[in-house]
Amino acid sequence: MILGIDASRANHDQKTGVEWYAFFLIEExxxxxxxxxxxxxxxxxDQPLRGSLARMPQHWTQKVLSWPPRxxxxxxRLSWEMLLHPPDVLFIPAHVFPIIHPKKTVMTVHDVAxxxxxxxxxxxxxxxxxxSASYAARRLWKVIVPSxxxxxxxxxxxTAGNRPDAVYDSERIMVIPHGYDPAYGAPVSxxxxxxxxxxxxxxGPFLLAIGRLEYKKNTAxxxxxxxxxxxxxxERVQNLALVLAGKPGVGYETIASIREASPxxxxxxxxxxxxxxxxxxxxxxxxxxxxxxxYEGFGMPVLEAFASGTPAVVSKGNSxxxxxxxxxxxxxxxxxxxxxxxxxxxxxxxHLREEYAQKGLSRVRKFSWRSSAEKTVDVLLNxxxx
Length: 386
Known about the structure:
Helix content: 40-55%
Number of helices: 15
Number of strands: 13
C-alpha cells in the first residue's frame, strides 16, 4: 500500500498556519506508521526536503518534482506524477488538490474565508480557494476540516445559491482539530527573551498579535482599541506597546496609514514575519495575546498563547470559541468598544490575567498533534481498506 502526501507547503522556510499544520502533522505521522509494515509513504515536494522533514523513517521516501513550470506546481507537476505513478491514497494537507488525482484523495480544507470575506482576497485567490473547497467536498474521497465551525461553513458554501450540482455527503467531511507546537510550553532562556526584545525594540509591557497584517485579521480595529486604551491613561498603560508580528496582507495600506496617523505610533511595533524562537519568546512575556480576527477556521496561535501561560483576548462568532472554550476573553471583532474593554480588563487586572493564564494552561491539554495525526492516519488507512 502506498500513501502519498503533498509536503510542499510543510517544506517552506517562513511557515505560517497552514504550513505549520502540514509540518507537524507529517512529523507525528512518521511516529505512527511504523506499526504498519506494509505501508509505504511518499512525500512529494517541489524542492528537496529540509531539516527534520528530510529525516525519513523506514518505508518513507521523498520524491522531488522539480521540472518546469515552477508556477502552479500542484496542477502541473503533481498532476503529472499522479497520472504516471498514482499512490493508493493521496493526502493533501493544504487546501488545493491536483486536478489529476487518485480516486481515494483526502484533502484538508482549513476554512472558506474567501466565501464570507471576498474582498480579503485577490480575484484569483478567491475563485481558486472557493472552487477547490467546493469540488473537494463534492468529489474527493474525504475532506478533513479543523473545527465544527469550518464544517458548517463548508456546507453553507455547498448549498449557496441553490446550485443544482451541489451533491454532497456531509458524513464525508471529518472534523479533526489541530494541535500546537509543544515548544510553546517549554521554558525559554532569559537570554533568548532579552535578545528578541532588543531585536524588535520592545522595552516594557506589550500586547501581542501574531498573524498577517490585513483586513481579515482585523488589524485596524486592534490599533484603534490600543489607542483608546492608551488614552484612558493610568500607570499600567503608560508604557504599554502593541506588537504586530506578521507579514503585510490584503488591506495593509489602510493599516499602515492608520498606524502612521496614530498619536501612539511610536508604541506600535511591526516586526514582519518572525521565527519560531522569536514567536515563543514574545508569547512567553506578552501581557496579553490578542487575536480579534474576523474569520478563522481554527486558530493555532490561541493554543500557543495558552501553552505559554499568556492570557488571550479573541474574537467570538467563529471557530475560536471552539478552540478557547472558557479559557479566553471574547469580544465581537466588529465592535471596537468590546475589543477595547476586554483588553483593558486584562491589562489592568493582574489577578484576572493570572486566572486566564491558568485556564489556558488547562485548556491546551485537550489538543495535540499526536491526537490529530492518529485521527488523520485512521481516515487515510480506512480509505485504503474500503
